[in-house]
Amino acid sequence: MDLVPDDNSQYKDVDYWDERYKKEQCYDWLGDFSKIKHLLETHIKKDDSILILGCGNSSMSGEMYTAGYRSITNIDYSSVCISTMAARYSDCPGMTWREMDMRQLCFPGTSFDVILEKATLDAIMVDEKSPWDVSPQTACCVHQVLSEISRCLKPGGRFVSVTFAQPFFRKRLYARTEYNWSIKQYSYGKGFQYFVYVMTKGEQLSPEDADLEKKLLEETKSVPGKTTTTPKEDNEDFLLNIRL
Ligand SMILES: C[S@@+](CC[C@H](N)C(=O)[O-])C[C@H]1O[C@@H](n2cnc3c(N)ncnc32)[C@H](O)[C@@H]1O
Question: Which atom of ligand 1 is nearest to the CA of 17?
Answer without folding.
Answer: 25
